[in-house]
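$ ./design --mode recover --in tokens.txt
reading tokens...
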């Protein structure tokens, strides 16, 4: 199973963005979706696939925290 994770764009360089996932920072391909620093995004397989609203990102992060507590 593959999961897309919500994160926040910290910086952009060309078609690559540095995305923060609750303290873990990862470079992700940003060429599929137009993003800016500060955008909340959904990342799958190293690619930003969607911009998220603050509310959507917060809800997803809360859900993932719940899932971590269960397992």
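writing sequence...
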């Amino acid at each position: 199973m593959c999961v897309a994770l919500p994160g926040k764009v910290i910086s952009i360089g060309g078609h690559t963005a540095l995305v923060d996932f609750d303290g873990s920072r990862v470079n992700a391909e940003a060429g599929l979706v137009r993003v800016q620093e500060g955008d909340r995004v959904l990342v799958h397989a190293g690619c930003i696939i969607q911009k998220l609203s603050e509310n959507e990102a917060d809800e997803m992060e809360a859900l993932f925290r719940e899932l971590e507590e269960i397992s």
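exit 0
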